Structure formats: structure tokens, C-alpha cells
Amino acid sequence: MAEKTAPEHELGAVLTTIEQHVTRMLTGLPNSPTALRVRFGDVAVETEWTAPVAAAPPPAAPVRPTDEPADDRSLHVRAPSVGVFYRAPEPGAEPFVSEGDVIRPGQQVAIVEAMKLMIPVKSEVHGEVVAVLKANGDPVEYDEPLLAVVPVD
């Protein structure tokens, strides 16, 4: 008798949920782990690092010049995790968004890489990007502002 397996879309949804939970769990740890095992039923994923992951340097200064006044109406798109901020899907590619672009809720605007996981940064607001607050490759902390956005009606 053939073994029953979950349809691919269900497995993908389960793996995405696991990835999100594991990422949230790891961002709350005081030290970087050297090994990780995630098990779901008969499926297990194990990862081991031969050396502890180095601590991230302190956050870099915002890209916005200090003499530029902040817009009181601006909202922020924030980092979903501790990691490294990337403006484009791959090196050499055009950035997801730039200053002056209008973004919508659910639109991917950047990536945060955390322990080799590429976590999409999605907008929760509809508005115009008025400032990109981090440079490509900057380390970021959980909930740190990445983009300043002025809402559009």
C-alpha cells in the first residue's frame, strides 16, 4: 500500500510556519546557538555550526542626514528579526524600493537575513517612502525602523 503524504502546498505552509516560529525563538536568545534541530513528525532538519556566530556590531547610523527634519506624519517599516538588512533580492539587483516610491500593505520592501534564512520585510502601510534608514548590509535589531513612510490617502 502506498504511503500517504501531505500535498506539497500543505507541506510548504507547515515549513513556512515552522521557519517563522524558529526565527522568532532564535531572535530572543541571548547567545547564538551552535546547533539547531527542528522536527515535524517523521521529518527532522538539523543544522550545526562549527564555530559560534560572531556578535553583530552595533547598529550603524541612519542613512538620513542628521540635519534633515523628521516628518511627524511618517510611519516606519520595521525589521521582523535580528539580522542583516538587504535592499535588493540579490547582489547587483535593483532595490525593492527607493525613496519616492509608493508602497502598499503586503508589498515586499527588503530582506533581513538571519542565520542563513532570508526573511522578507513587508510593508504594513500604504504610503510614500521618504527615507531608507539603513544601508545595504547593515546589521539590524528586531523591530528597528528600516524605512520611513508618509501615509498616502
UniProtKB/TrEMBL annotation:
It comes from the Bacteria. Residues 51-73 are annotated as: Disordered. Gene3D superfamilies: 2.40.50.100. InterPro entries: ACC_Biotin_Carrier (IPR053217), AcCoA_biotinCC (IPR001249), Biotin_BS (IPR001882), Biotin_lipoyl (IPR000089), Single_hybrid_motif (IPR011053). CDD domains: biotinyl_domain. The keyword Lipid biosynthesis applies. Pathway: Lipid metabolism; fatty acid biosynthesis. SUPFAM superfamilies: Single hybrid motif. Keywords: Biotin, Fatty acid biosynthesis, Fatty acid metabolism, Lipid biosynthesis, Lipid metabolism. Residues 74-150 form the Lipoyl-binding domain. Pfam families: Biotin_lipoyl (PF00364). The keyword NAD does not apply. This protein is a component of the acetyl coenzyme A carboxylase complex; first, biotin carboxylase catalyzes the carboxylation of the carrier protein and then the transcarboxylase transfers the carboxyl group to form malonyl-CoA. PANTHER family: IS A MEMBER OF THE PF|00364 BIOTIN-REQUIRING ENZYMES FAMILY-RELATED. This is Biotin carboxyl carrier protein of acetyl-CoA carboxylase. It comes from Saccharopolyspora oryzae.
